Amino acid sequence: MFDLIVLGGGPGGYLAAERAGGAGLSVLLIEKQYIGGVCLNEGCVPSKALLNSAKMYDHAANGEKFGVISENARLDQAAVVKRKNRVVKRLVGGVKNTLKKNGVEVVEGFGTILGRENGVIKLAVSATADAAEKTVYEGKQLIIATGSEAIVPPIPGVKDGLADGTVLTNREILELTEIPETLVVVGGGVIGLEMAAYYNTVGSKVTVIEMLDHIAGAADRELVTILQKNFEKKGITFHLNSQVTAVGGGQVSFKDPDGAEQQVPAAKVLMSVGRRAVTKGFGLENLGVMVERGHIVTDNHGLTNVPGVYAVGDVNGVWMLAHAAYREAEVAVNTILGKKDQMRYQAMPSVIYTNPEMAFVGETEETCAAKGIAYDKVMIPMGFSGRYLAESEDTDGVIKLLIDPVHKCLIGCHMLGLYASEIIIAAGMLVETEMRIDDIKEFIFPHPTVAEIIREAIFQYKG
Ligand code: FAD
User: How confident is the model at residue 463 (pLDDT cuts 50, 70, 90)?
Assistant: First the structure.
């Protein structure tokens, strides 16, 4: 019998298994498809490998302002995908080695929860969900990390399009070896925007159709408006408040805000309307695990309503981000080990890895308004940083700080521009630790760095 069984080998599952194995527990990890889950194989990492190729291509093709002339710059999409696959293979190999080093037993197959008898949790593993041949494993505790999957809405033509390869999810779009002439992205959230930005840079005519009146989900609206204008200057077309009604025949039909039907040409269509937690078909009901609004309900230790059963990562629906899954995995394992730990979500960073990048943490003006939180605001161009000017020709970059006017500490930071993804952790630490503005002023930032923009913005605060 294992001390711990982990179901699902994505960031939540593999890190939980590594940490628990490293702490001396006997651990079984069950994974049905590929170690590394969505993040390593068809999510975070492959999308960033592609986006880096787009950035390099953009530098080569538009380097004149920097004094770099490279004639006939060309992007070889097949080579981009090949490199992406190398990166994925290397990372997945690294995770497998780490699991091995930590003594984790890995079983490849579909895991089904059978239930609990005399305090022992039982799971069956089979080659596929419905295969008859099964091996039963027993564990004292269970971490469920079954992740999420792309939502495919029942729009006419989508099913056929998925079958003939004209409609894609995040999985297939990362495998395209040819650049489509036209791409319609249905859903202007983070995944949709990253792919829209990639294909726009490498030569597709990209249209984004979004049902809401804004793109980028819960990101700060003021910065999102700047980001959208930046994309529009680069040639991406947006249709907001618009609902896709049909797909097929090389086009996408949608209802515009006035209710009129419009069509837009689409050699390929990316469906990126959101993701749903994987909670069905693997026996959750056999343990009586509570599922509400499509995700497993947990407390701030990752514990479900069933003693000894935890749920981490996308399946708990709190934040569908890999770094949330990592931290939740650690909290769950620490709790199992009897160490004091708990999740705090107020400083969860989010990043949109487009060019320019957008990164944010903490409250937005919109969440402050909704929660009745008072705030002071500082907003300055990223161009106040010398390094930013040295390295970027983008004039749209900005940083916005939201400050608690009573306690004089940072409650939100929103950045648009070069290196925002790398810098946001500094702001996250300040939000998490509730450090006073006067104390932040005493930090020494390396010069010249784009990170200095945080210091600049802090010194602009006159509250
Ligand atoms: P998953 O990664 O979904 O892993 C779950 C695993 O469980 C899967 O491998 C699955 O095969 C396995 N499984 C499920 N059921 C069973 C079963 N019954 N038996 C055995 N195995 C099972 N997040 C970020 O933080 N940064 C990013 O830049 C980012 N980019 C993204 C880009 C894209 C295109 C997508 C789609 C997602 C992106 N995400 C990003 C989100 C990130 O991928 C997820 O938050 C993360 O993968 C969640 O980890 P997880 O362990 O909860 O689940």
Answer: confident
For 5, 85, 90, the CA distances from 299, given in Å and listed in that order, are 19, 37, 35
| Closest to 352 in 3D by CA, of 46, 42, 51 | 51
Half-sphere exposure of 367 (CA within 13 A, CB side): 14
Pocket of ligand 1 (CB under 6 A): 7-13, 30-34, 37-39, 43-44, 47, 110-111, 145-148, 170, 191, 278, 282, 313-315, 320-323, 325, 353
Question: What pLDDT digit, counting tens, does each position of 370-401 carry?
Answer: 999 999 999 999 999 999 999 999 999 999 99
Q: Say which amino acid occupies 113.
A: I
C-alpha of residue 148 to centroid of ligand 1, in Å? 6
pTM above 0.85, yes or no: yes
Q: Are the C-beta atoms of 144 and 315 separated by less than 8 Å?
A: yes
The C-alpha angle with vertex 304 and arms to 343 and 281, in degrees rounded to 5, equals: 120
Rounded CA-CA distance 224/352 in Å is 11
Mean pLDDT of the chain: 97
What are the pLDDT digits (tens) for 158-183?
A: 999 999 999 999 999 999 999 999 99
